[in-house]
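hiii, so i know i said id send this last week but things got crazy w the move. better late than never?? heres the sequnce for the chain we talked about at the cafe, plus the structure i predicted for it. fair warning i was half asleep when i ran it
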Amino acid sequence: MRVLGIETSTRRGTVALVQDGNLLGALAHEEQSAHAERVLGLIEELLASVGWTRGSLDRVAVGVGPGSFTGLRIGIALGQGIALGLDRPIVGVGSLRAMAGALPADDARVRIAVLDARRSELFVAAYAPNGDELLAPNALPAPAARSTLTALLAGRPAVLVGEGAALLGGDFAVERGPELDLPHAGPVARIGEHLDPAASLSEPVYVRGHGATPQNLPPSPLG
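okay and structure toks below
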């Protein structure tokens, strides 16, 4: 199966092509607020480098967060547009799940993915080595995240991935790497290859509200 992966939930935008579980190529950018301008061009560049056309694709997989509201909307809309235009299925892959899935399959530790969610919170999720979700993505303050994970693990060995690992603290092992520090389209595509499109929808996982505070306005004189 030939899969296009798209991941735009953070400052880094990545695209990847995977065939039967093998990563054929990936491209990335980290230009501030430039997903809308850069990602489609990266897709076309990557397809050309691998020798595929859009019509060669069997499926599109897109990272669905949690992460940047704007980034998620851009990536998901782009993936949906490509899938619709080609009449191909699209699957949504959790961005934290993709980070955890970037570790080697034979690593027997529980994988804890952590990203800085701003506002003194962390995006945190935990996965078994086989990919089963042990802790659904949450936005938690670091002390609450540590206590939640301590109770969840009950002494089992675990490893942290993600740029937010340093902010979590605690006595955890940490693994670093291009596909581990931030969500990456490579694991998104590899995981998405095996998901059921009917059960893995390309809908954003925001975890929390956008943070907008309604204005305290006086009653309208026209009301």
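btw The beta strands are 2-7, 13-19, 22-29, 59-63, 90-93, 110-118, 121-127, 133-140, 158-161, 173-174. thought thatd interest u
miss u guys!!
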